[in-house]
Fold:
Amino acid sequence: MFRKFNLKTEIILAVMPATMIISVLMLLEIFTSQKLLFSSLASSAFLIYMDPKHPTNRVRTLIIAQISAALIGYLIFILLGPGYLSAAISMIIAIIVMISAKAMHPPAVSSAMIFAFQYTKPNTLMLFMMAVLLLVMLIVLQKLSLWVLKKADKENVAEEI
Structure:
């Protein structure tokens, strides 16, 4: 049987994503009734995996942009109710906050609008925060996987010499 990496590296690489997937499956039941709410996070995940080194896709940027946008949309919804005015005000304020914080992350604009339009349930904001945390964990997992692969490549090169 051909192995690209040593057994220890292969086990580490298999355990990390398996652990994350099991976590996602456990949380899936909580999120199933709030599908639209998490659409902007899917866009965030795509951007991060496409170009993880771009300033728009840093963990700091993601956290500041998504959480502030959700809070802004939620607060405007509470103040004005759902509708286009709430969505427009939320979007504008979210963009201003992201620019001011030097944390531009375009998918967060849709988070502000989703919260402004929704007919909210008490736990919606908390669910969204948990989903942001899950996305951050996926980013950390990706970086850890890259580190393990880099280390394994160095070990393989040393073994060949």
About this structure: The chain has six helices and no strands. Residues 61-140 form one domain. The two ends are 22 Å apart (CA to CA). The mean pLDDT is 80.
